[in-house]
Amino acid sequence: MLNNLYFVRAFLLRTSTYICYLFISLSTLLLPQDTWAASPDQLQQQSFSPYSISDDGYLHYNLQVNDSSYLAIVLNLNTLFPSTNVENLRLKQYELTGSELKISSYQGSPISIHYQVTDNELKILRTSNLPSKPRLNSHLFSLNFIRELETLFAVNDLEQLKILNWGTVPKENILLFLSQLNDFSNTAEFGYNAIHNLLASKNYAVAKFFYNSFLTKNKNFNDFELLKMAIEQEDLDFIKKTSLNSLDILGIDEVKFDYSFTQCTLLGKAIQQKNKVIARYLLDHRASTEKVYKYETEVLNAIQFAERAKAKKLADLFK
Exposure string (b/e) for 232-268, b if CB count within 10 Å is 16 or more? Predict the structure, then answer.
């Protein structure tokens, strides 16, 4: 395997009390320009070639071109495996090098695509076990762009983020690059970490921008914290733009001084906020009325919690 694909390992900690991550600070996640980049020699020493497969069946990976540039590679796997769902696409084995993409399945012969990079462009040389050449889309991006993006997120410069020129680079590839940089196992985990830190630093608007830029189509992203904040902000317009991935998840609501905590679903948070409009919207999207709020010793359904929260105007929604 050639060593010109980028990968940097770091670490990920998990809490013991709840299935979530103990997140490093955003200043570490989105590293400043003078500390974030590994040297070219360090990059070339890496031997693992990571990738991601989006929920719509596209393979994404990044190929190093030189010390300062990468090609974002995208392949529509649906054209190679038209009758295979995304779960089974992710079960296949993908071997990536600087000159070959090899896809193996439990059954059948492996598929190979051989290519080379010339003048910052990718050219397919030959294929194996394919009736015709597939289309490998490639988009050049630079480390300077990554540094600029990281810096803008680190300083929460929303206005500059809005006018940043992304060019044609797929944002899934940029998110993958940042995920690899921080050794997250997938883009959903990295996205959760970034959103968590942005919200912790009270940058809800930037957190929404990050979500809208990278995570709107990611069904594996745990959007509970972001949606909980959206409910607290009475931001129904934003809620309507999300996939409600965490609709019935019991997530942490409040942590007490003794480290005990309460949990709520999104509907439970809407009840707590006495927001009938958002509660109705969640119900219209089949939010469960069972187990909407959890204390240390009891779990309440929607009617019970509405009574506890003195949200009588919402109680009729659950009868």
Answer: eeebeebbeebbbbbbbebbbbeeeeeeebbbbbbbb
State the total domains in the chain: 2
Instruction: Give the H/E segment covering residue 74.
Output: strand 69-76
Residue 36 within any structural domain of the chain: yes
Q: Could you tell me the residue range of the domain that residue 142 belongs to?
A: 13-181
Task: Report if residue 252 sits inside a domain.
Answer: yes
Q: According to the 3-state scheme, what is the secondary structure of 3-46?
A: CCCCCCCCCCEECCCCCCEECCCHHHHCCCCCCCCCCHHHHHCC
Does residue 172 sit in the same domain as residue 228?
no
> pLDDT digits over 159-174, tens only?
999 999 988 999 999 9
Kindly report, residue by residue over 131-144, the tens digit of the pLDDT. 778 999 999 999 99
Q: Look at the pTM and tell me if it is higher than 0.70.
A: yes
